[in-house]
Design goal:
Elements lengths: L8 H11 L2 H20 L4 H10 L8 H10 L11 H17 L4 H9 L10 H12 L8 H10 L1 H18 L6 H10 L5
Helix pairs in contact: 2-3, 2-7, 3-6, 3-7, 4-5, 5-6, 6-7, 7-9, 8-9, 9-10
Keywords: Hydrolase, Iron, Metal-binding, Nucleotide-binding
InterPro entries: Diverse_Catalytic_Enzymes (IPR051094), HD/PDEase_dom (IPR003607), HD_domain (IPR006674), YqeK (IPR005249)
Pfam family, one: HD
Length: 194
């Protein structure tokens, strides 16, 4: 039994695997493994990190209509309808996790909400771990991933800075709209020295 889910980790894995393709589920398992590693290295509750990592992409493969229904039913920020899955699966997905899986721990739900956009000063260590584990899991092979892993091993804060700088540069190069929370994350973490 885990104190953050009404069942065992094996039960939670089964519930998650029902909602995801095998490709996405394997990613989730790798994120879990990396999150546990980062949690141990950064004095973060390992059980919370494991659960948060397992559920971080729970809603990733849902339809746009599913997200729009939750945004409306939960009276969420109306601006959310202007974004897409990249933003929705974290922010709106946290509400699906609460409602469908019964996970109510606010640290876990916040980590899910923040795992793609990050956050500024409100980003606690658990959220930082999930943000970085999703970026660095061992299936990732983008240019610079080894450097990012090394930096993160030395400093979680510097890893976040590396990720948000490189993610925003990629989005700008692609001329993709940037969610305001991602800009807030950049503005906060780019000033971090250690």
């Amino acid at each position: 039994m885990t104190k953050y889910f009404n069942g065992t980790i094996t039960d939670l894995e089964a519930r998650i695997s029902e909602k995801l393709s095998d490709y996405r589920y394997q990613h989730v398992l790798r994120v879990r493994d990396y999150a546990v590693k980062l949690a141990k290295a950064n004095d973060v509750d390992v059980d919370k990190a494991e659960v948060a990592a397992l559920v971080h992409d729970y809603a990733k493969e849902r339809s746009d209509n599913d997200f729009l229904k939750v945004i409306e039913a939960q009276h969420m920020d109306p601006d959310l309808i202007n974004w897409g899955n990249y933003v929705w699966h974290g922010i709106v997905g946290a509400e699906m996790i609460r409602n469908e899986l019964g996970i109510v721990d606010e640290d876990i739900l916040t980590a899910v909400r923040q795992h793609t956009t990050g956050a500024g000063a409100s980003m606690n260590k658990l959220s930082q771990v999930i943000f970085m584990a999703d970026y660095l899991e061992l299936g990732r092979d983008f240019k610079g991933v080894e450097e990012a892993r090394t930096i993160t091993d030395q400093s979680l804060a510097q890893g976040i800075k590396y990720q948000i700088v490189h993610t925003l540069a990629r989005l700008i190069h692609k001329e993709t709209p940037i969610y305001p929370k991602s800009l807030e994350t950049y503005n906060y973490w780019v000033k971090k020295e250690k």
